Structure formats: C-alpha cells, structure tokens
Amino acid sequence: MPIITGTADPAAHGFRIRRWTALPIIAVFLWLDHFHLDLFRAVAGDWSGAARTWALVLLGYLPHWIVALGVAALLTRPGHAAHALGLDGRPLRALLLGLLLTAPMALGLALEAPLTLDADTPHTLMRHAVLPGFGEELLYRGLLFGLLFRIAGWGFVPAALTGALLFGAAHLSQGGSAVEAAGIFAITALGGVWFAWLYVEWDFDLWVPVAFHVLMNAWWVVFPVADNALGPLWTVGLRLLVIALSVGVTLAYARRRGGRRIRGRHWFWIRARSSAMY
Q: Global pTM?
C-alpha cells in the first residue's frame, strides 16, 4: 500500500502528482459513463427477474469495474489499483455508519409510504440500489473525482464540481418537465459533492459513500414515494437531514484523527512534489 512520505502532500495520500493524467482520466470516464450499459440494453432490454439482474451485473457493470481497476493500475501500480480507487477501506464500518445516519430517512419515509415488498423486491434492490450505488460511486467518486484529486492534482472544488455536474446531468432524463429536471439535477449534484467530501474525509474509503448511496436508494425502493430522484419537498428535507448528520459525525471523526484532510490550498490545488513517491 502506498504511504505518505515526509514531503508528500497529505491530500494526495501517498500518490505522486502527475498533471497530464487528468485528460485520460476524464476521457475514460466519459467513455464508460456513456457506453457501459449499451450492451446490457441491447441484450436484456425486455428481460425481468433474476435474468435481468445477472445481465446487468455481467454486461452492464462488470466491464466498467474492470476498466476502472485497469486505469487505476496503469496510473499507479498493479498492486495499488484497489487503494487508488478507495476499495481497500472498511466496508463493515461504512455499513454501520450508513445504517445509523440514514435511519431518520427510513423512518420518515415509513411514516408516509407503505412498506412495499414482493417477490421481485430482492432483484429490484439489486438493480436500483446495490448495483448503481456501488457502480456510480466507483465510477464518479473512485475513478473520476478520486483520481483527479489524488493523482492529477486537482483541488477538491474543481474535482468535486466536475464529478457533481456530470452526476447531476446523468439524472436529467428522469425529469418529466424542465422544473422537475432542474430539481433532480440540483439534488443529485449536491449528492455528488457530498459523496466526494465523505470519501476524502473518511480516509479515501470508498465504502462510506457507497453505503450511504446504496442505503438511501434502498429506502426509496421499499418505501416508494416517487418514481424519480426528486420526490416531494419533504423528502428533500429528509435527505438534507442525513447530510447534516453525516457532516457532524465526519467532522468529529476528523478532529479525533488530528484534522480535516481538505484544508487550505487543498480546496483548489494540490502541489506536486517530486519526492512524493509511492
């Protein structure tokens, strides 16, 4: 695992800054984001149940997971790919944190919407919570934001905004009107910045934003209140409450650790150091 040397920038978390990598990182991301579900849609467009779920895993998400790991390996070292993408963290800690802090959202939804379970619910949860929750975090936070921040030397603001704007744009098609599309864009773009901040401040542990993303999607599935990412205004309040709780807990964790990772110039620029080696 890479370590931070005495002169390495702590925000880079032990990786040498190479500015030129920004272009290939963005190019690979755009290619994956645009085309990675095409084969799945062509083969399994009208499938249902377990067949559709497995097709989504094998044809939709697995190829882009492999490419993401490959890019990380090329830009770092083969043995460091999982670390570069934040996959070597603590998934159980992340799950417990996510369950605790998304509980108010689950409770709020449960008070307004009936628990909806049927024979296809496990597959629905896989297709609409587990797979997109993990897949989008790996693609948007691990690959795009994470590598721009940790390897290309972008500061948090430009790297997070790039990922957030693209994340919001990817959800625009859910809107039935211009106003609804704008609301969906705003709430998902905010989520993109939030997930990126959690990723960094929890020591580049991608499982933390994965847990929040998966669980919040899962509550939306089992307590359905809307067929898109916006929902009624009160559901926006529930999500803002989860964000506020997570910010408080994360800042407390950062103080216990010795300080926030994003501070000073790290918000806008990571300084390259020739001695910041693996």
A: 0.92
